[in-house]
Amino acid sequence: MVNIALPKGRLGEKVYDLFEASGYACPSIRENSRKLIFENESAGVRFFWVKPSDVAIYVERGAADLGVAGKDILLEYAPQVYELLDLHMGNCRMAVASKRGFRDNPDKTLRVATKFTNIAKKYYGDQCRDIDIIHLNGSIELAPILGLSDVIVDIVETGTTLKENDLVAYETIVPISARLISNKAGYQFKYAEISAIVTALKGQVNPG
């Protein structure tokens, strides 16, 4: 059996649809129940739902052979996994945003509010920019409005939240989408099974 960690929520449901269309259906997953693990012995797969930010941990630690995680998680935490396929789902971008009209003064330390501290450090480190990281877990948009930070580094999907708070995204750090990842040891031991799944998924992925 190939163990597959799916992220809970709307993205996970879309990802499961992709597996189903690829020939790896598990009908019991559609039932209204509190079950967390679903098997299809004939297809050789076992699915389970986990919190999106935990998928990479399950895969890295070997509890799952495969999983689906956002590129933001992979960049921020750098788990020791193989990235096998861009599923072209959950598309958004990691961006730098600030109050409208903000002008960066390179002579001053830039105050950056974010929950993606490693991504921000690498981005500004590559520019040799002196920054002060302010780690926040939610409502990042408040930071520049209240003067806590000069800019924020955060995921931007439609930009509506930024616009409603008179903020502007002015630099894209990296595009983000859902990626199929694999446990490194599991990839070796179950190479044939995993390769068959990847090939089947490739046939269903829409690059858009």
Please give a structural write-up.
With 208 residues, the chain is an alpha/beta fold. The chain contains eight helices and eleven strands. A six-stranded mixed sheet has the order 2-3-1-4-11-5. A hairpin with a 4-residue loop joins strand 2 and strand 3. The model has no long low-confidence stretch (mean pLDDT 94).
Mean pLDDT: 94
Main sheet overview: 6 strands, mixed
Strand content: 25-35%
Number of strands: 11
Question: How would the global form be characterised?
Answer: elongated
**Structural class label:** alpha/beta
Number of helices: 8
User: How do the strands of the widest beta sheet line up side by side?
Assistant: 2-3-1-4-11-5
Flag low-confidence runs. none
How are helices and strands ordered from N to C? EHEEHEHEEEHEHEHEEHH
Radius of gyration: 19 Å
Distance between the termini: 31 Å
> What is the helical fraction, as a range of percent?
25-40%
